[in-house]
Amino acid sequence: MLYQIIFGIFYASILEWWIHKTPLHTWGGVFRSHVVDHHRLSAKDMTDSDYKGVLFGKNEMILVVVAIAIHTPVLFFFPYVFGTFAVYSCLYLILHRLSHISADFAKRWMPWHYVHHCANAKKNFGIIHPLVDIVAGTYKSLN
User: Fold this and answer.
1) Whole-angstrom distance, CA of residue 50 vs CA of residue 134
2) 9-34, pLDDT tens digit by residue?
3) In terms of pLDDT, which residue wins out, 30 or 109?
4) Using 50, 70 and 90 to split pLDDT, how confident is the model at 56?
5) How far apart are the first and last CA of the chain?
6) Where is 73: in which H helix or E strand?
7) How many angstroms separate the CA atoms of 125 and 3, rounded?
8) Is this structure's pTM higher than 0.90?
9) How high is the pLDDT of residue 25?
């Protein structure tokens, strides 16, 4: 059980980092709105008006639901990996939203994400935590 949970955390972290770094920042097309809209709106003070008054961003919610659905077969073979992945995905929705409705929250609890939006969009692609950024050499601290 513990090994599955640890694997689930690492797997979800790597997938989160890769999706953010690659499709959302380099592919363009349908992913272009991430850089054009989300980064433009949050570059000054981290807040993004698209997050105010809504529980979760529509595109993010769709992405998370699709990601969990795609991973459903894992449930039958590695239930704790699937559960960890699903919880991690939901945690992503909550923490990402909080970081974009409160710059103070982002600076205090997610400074790596604050740096990504307000200082260097080519660094810190991990949202929940910066572990993969540290390993991949894409981490930049707030200071």
Assistant:
1) 29
2) 999 999 999 999 998 888 877 777 77
3) 109
4) low
5) 38
6) none
7) 25
8) no
9) 87
Distance in angstroms (rounded) separating the CA atoms of residues 55 and 57:
7
Quote the DSSP letter at residue 120: -
| 90 within 8 A of 64, measured Cβ to Cβ | yes
Q: Which two tokens stand for residue 98?
A: 């909080």
d(CA 68, CA 45): 31
| Residue keyed to tokens 């590695």 | 78
As a whole number of angstroms, the distance between CA 133 and CA 123 comes to: 8
3-state DSSP assignment of residue 48: coil
What are the phi and psi torsion angles at 109 (to 5°)?
-105, -20
Q: Average of pLDDT values for 61-77?
A: 93
Ramachandran angles phi, psi of 129, nearest 5°: -155, 165
For residue 89, what are its two tokens?
A: 């995905």
